[in-house]
Each structure stands twice: as structure tokens, then as C-alpha cells.
Amino acid sequence: MNGTKQICATRYDGYLAFQANCNELEIVYLVSGWHRTSLISVIVADILLILPAVILNLLVIAVVKKHRSLQTVSNILLACLAVSDLLIGLIMIPCVVGSVAIVLKCKLVCWFYIVTFQVGYYLAIVSFLTLTLVSLDRYFAISYPYQYQVQTASGKTVKVVVAATWLISCFVIILSYALQKMRLPSQFFTVLAPLSIFISFTTQICTLRAVRAVRRRDASTTVRDYNVKSLRPSRKSYMREKATRVAAFILLATICCYLPHAVLTTIRTLRKDIFAFQGIYDWTKTLVIANSALNPIIYCMNIREMRSKAFRMICNTRNARVDSKKDSMFSMAATIKVGNQR
Asked: Which of the residues 26, 95, 157, 185 could staple to 116 if both were Cys, CB 3.0 to 4.6 A apart?
């Protein structure tokens, strides 16, 4: 036990800004027995979120990559958001569980705990920047359709914007290490999160107004031309409204998952008490993590083509496994038959 403590306590290179707070953070996890029990239940809940976060996001990425009809700008941005959610389930959640387990065992905060939350802030920054891009994409697609088609026809614009999103987040993390200010990513995220939600929310309102204006314009054109067939909405307008609805649902889910954590963080800051509502605060972090498993469910529930192709991919994979088992059984039976004949 002492050896483990010594391993956790040594070498704080690059974490000088956190040295003064390590003793305070240590008390949080050892303040009482009930809090230790609460942390164990939080770990169990986080572990249960790993499988759906990984499988569902991996399925969304595979479906968008395999089917060319789904490779629209909005779906590519959703796939980019699914990549960040996949990394949360694949890397972030296991690291959180491992770091908290180390804290409970070593009874102090080690460098792995700090690095874990650095990675978490990196992925959170990517997610919020991508969320803003999804909302802006819907606004420009509805309000300026011709300019939008020209700009996104080659696909280079989308690749550049997505790459810039990941590079900005990486730059913030590198800058925090270079300046030895470990709180820089959290401070940047504290500013980015409300700003991103405000921009996305305002953009969604403008997009909904633009959708209504397009509907009225199409209805007036239909009445003027007396074309009965055009009374039905076109597939293009249907897909456009579907993508707008998906962006609105993603924004709503993000607000619901991040708002409790943001409110409690604000309360703790105003009260100048880092231990206030600590048990509930840990569960708000789990709710934030749960957003990574909730987003792919929103995609599949609202995009019929993605849902059908994902279901078909699962069925094909299952049938392929069954066929491979049958082939192996037949080959084994044939081998046994040949052996008996000999």
C-alpha cells in the first residue's frame, strides 16, 4: 500500500499549477464513508455507459462511411460528433474510472487523474465546437441554399472546418502544458460552452424561421401554379427539415446533460466551497458522460435512412456470422465423412 502511494505521489512534472490544490482535492474523496460509497456507485454507472457509447457511435460512423447517400455535410458533421463521443466511451470513461479507483486506493490525487480530465476537456471542446458547426450548417443550408451548395460541393470546406475544430482543441491543451496552467482548458471550456449553446440556440431559431418562410413560399408557388403533385413536399425539403430537427434535438440533449453540472459548478464557485453538493456533483459528471451514448440514439431515431441502414448492417453482420458457422460445420462434417470413407 505504501509503495502504491509513493508511486502516485512522485513526479508532478508539468503539474505545478495543481500542487497547491492536490491536498484539497484529496479531502473530497475521503471526507466521509457515504461519499466513498457514492463514488463506487458512480464508477459502476460510468462502466455501464461504456458499451452503448462505443457500439452506437461506432455504428453511426460505419454507416455514414459505408453508404455514399448518407455522406452529406450535415451527416459528416454528425459523424465527427460521433467520433468525439466514441473517444469518450473508448478512452475517457475508462480513464475516469481508473483515475477515481486510484484516488480511492492511494488516498491522494496523482498525475493520471489530472491528465484524465485534460483529455475530457479536450473532447468536450471538440464536441461543443462541432455542435456549433452543426447548427450553423443547418442555418446556411436553409437561408443561403445556392451559396451553400457551391461552397460544399467539393467537400474540401467541410474537411478544413472539421480539422480546424480538432486543432483548436489540441492547441488549447498544448498551450496549457507550455504555460504550466492546467486550469486553462477548463477556463476555456467555461467560456466556450455557454457561448456555443447561445450561438446554436440563436441559430436554431433563425433556421426554424427560415424553414417556415420556405414552406410559405412553396405553398404560394403551388397555389399559383395549380399543381396538385407539388402539394407533397419534395424529398429535398423533407431531408432538409429532418436535418434541422436532428440539430435541434442534439442541442436540447446537450443542454439537459450539461446544465446540472454547470449550475452546480457555478453554485460551488459563488459559495467558494469546493465540497458543496459533492455527491450530486459526481452524478452530474456521469450525466455529462451519458450524453455521448444519447447522441447516436437521436441520430437513428430521427434519420430514417440512417436507422434502416444501421439495422440492415447489424442483420448482415449477424447473418454473416451464422453463415460462417454453417460453413465451418459443413466443412467439419465433410472432413469427418471423408475420414470415415478412408
From this structure: 95
